[in-house]
UniProtKB/TrEMBL annotation, chains A, B:
HAMAP family: LeuB_type1 (MF_01033). The keyword Transit peptide does not apply. This is 3-isopropylmalate dehydrogenase. Residues 4-347 form the Isopropylmalate dehydrogenase-like domain. One of its GO terms (molecular function) is 3-isopropylmalate dehydrogenase activity. Substrate binds at residues 97, 107, 135, 221. Catalyzes the oxidation of 3-carboxy-2-hydroxy-4-methylpentanoate (3-isopropylmalate) to 3-carboxy-4-methyl-2-oxopentanoate. The product decarboxylates to 4-methyl-2 oxopentanoate.
Amino acid sequence: MKLKIAVLPGDGIGPEVTAQAVKVLKAIAQEFDHSFQFKYASAGAVAIDETGDPLPKETLDVCKATDAILFGAIGDPKYDNNPDAQVRPEQGLLKLRKELGLYANIRPVKAYDTLLDKSPLKKQFIKGTDICIYRELTGGIYFGEKTLSEDGNTASDLCVYSRSEIERITHLAFKSAQSRKRKVTLVDKANVLESSRLWRKVVTEISQEYKDVKLDYLFVDNAAMQIILNPKQFDVILTENMFGDIISDEASVIGGSIGLLASASVGDYFAMFEPIHGSYPQAKDLGIANPIASILSAAMLLDHFELYEEAELIREGVERSLKLNITTPDLNTKFNHISTTKVGDFIEDFI
Amino acid sequence: MKLKIAVLPGDGIGPEVTAQAVKVLKAIAQEFDHSFQFKYASAGAVAIDETGDPLPKETLDVCKATDAILFGAIGDPKYDNNPDAQVRPEQGLLKLRKELGLYANIRPVKAYDTLLDKSPLKKQFIKGTDICIYRELTGGIYFGEKTLSEDGNTASDLCVYSRSEIERITHLAFKSAQSRKRKVTLVDKANVLESSRLWRKVVTEISQEYKDVKLDYLFVDNAAMQIILNPKQFDVILTENMFGDIISDEASVIGGSIGLLASASVGDYFAMFEPIHGSYPQAKDLGIANPIASILSAAMLLDHFELYEEAELIREGVERSLKLNITTPDLNTKFNHISTTKVGDFIEDFI
Ligand SMILES: CC(C)[C@H](C(=O)O)[C@@H](O)C(=O)O
Ligand SMILES: CC(C)[C@H](C(=O)O)[C@@H](O)C(=O)O
């Protein structure tokens, strides 16, 4: 297969982890006789530094002209505590999601048997956990109108959802549940929010078309508790943008490290693959960033093009590296100094 | 001291747990020669059933005419999955908070040494945790304008904050930190939300008046992770309404049971005390509801009137009951059938 892949390494640890994913994809191409062509482009704080724009038009053009996007991470602390900054790295990511119509962010959360001891949660609570979170990604409070009063003393953000925005991701979530444990849990705050009540209504209607899937409802506050108390009760979690952001980062503790969690952001025309961890600027260039989330994102990319065998081989490589303790310090209590690159090399060699 | 206390037992397990708190307060009154007068009033689904209104004017009048309010819980599943219901129990609670100006919801989270084994989290991660969450309670997306388009296909909720709303709770949070570990962590989503950027700006400004307190910032997605990964890093957490709802329920897992967590909702004129658990309708009248959160809410009520010795005695009674396994089934793996009432009786006797 021939694939053109846009690579947006971004900020902080983005470039170093993405480099490992590219290395692994190249190994796959060689092993399976595919042709993967990589086009690099800049986004985030680095793009602001270079061009003043966190998502230069050129980058967007590269993304639109390729079959899939491999994304690193963006964000830089110099913007975080400056409420007056007019341009922010995150705007680049949000614009990319919006412009490419990536409305569904899919985040699998698994407890790896070899890592059960690494989690802050007790083994018996997490063993066997296998959740897939469907987070709506181009609507809600992230994209609603924002206002700041002229005197700077009142600020607002609007959370809006339309029926069609809810419908399209709901279908994806139910279809995914059909090939899993046949359960969808809708997470909302329907006892307070009008937008959540619309979610509940639309999702309930659509569930009628999937009689083989059970639909459950959970208020987001309760969900935040249940994910820790009893993660095994979940199969597919479906939720809106902001709640999905919170719940999926929270769920990362189950696996023992956020450095393991990959994600796919898909729409009707484009697809992007990225680790869910952020730019982790404190770790930049120290060789301690865990590349596995990025490498597993590459596996999700291959799944997307139905290269299942190839994706599986990457996952086997990852499991092997975890089993042999070829991991970065966030997971490794046995060996010191196994660097980001070494983990990438190991999985490359495995392939 | 003479105190008039409004008692709003509410729905589900509300009445049974509140009855234990009242019993304990009566014991305190007797022991310390105080005069506590209790006035009962209805709110929530029971009030809808009786009057059509989740917060009848009579109830509000009772609340305004008393020194403090002891609240049970509200909510009933028959409203949850009916997106078209015009009247909901939760409206009663929200209106009460708003009408009484209860802008700060204070939720202490502690890991009890005797309960370390009950938590889904490993001991070494939680031992020594002592967090106090300050959640803004009368603003944000809970109270902003809500719309539903005429065709019912688009819904919205507005999240608004003004400088003064942020200022008043921020002062409370910093003052509390001064008598604790001198650290405030602001939880927001300033990389995306305009309202969060206003929070960051105002809180940063106010922090200048409290030079002895360290101010930290955390994005809410990261906070949801950090609370599980390393809860001991926190002292006072300050946050807006919706994030506070999620984060505080999540934090309840640290203590091993949400049935332990009390809260105070305070404003400039009134104060209300309630367990953070909900109405838990499945447990209603089974005698299995944990009354400790309600009893500890009564202790917070006494603190509010500077009856520190009395509050301390309640807390000692609670710790004793935990140590001796005189607890409801959520915490008890040793004895069966210790009921809600038995736990209340034990603490009453202790006093
Ligand atoms: C960087 C930020 C804007 C982003 C989000 O909130 O969506 C990130 O946290 C994520 O989850 O991908
Ligand atoms: C019942 C509900 C409206 C309420 C809230 O969301 O504030 C509850 O969850 C709480 O935290 O007190």
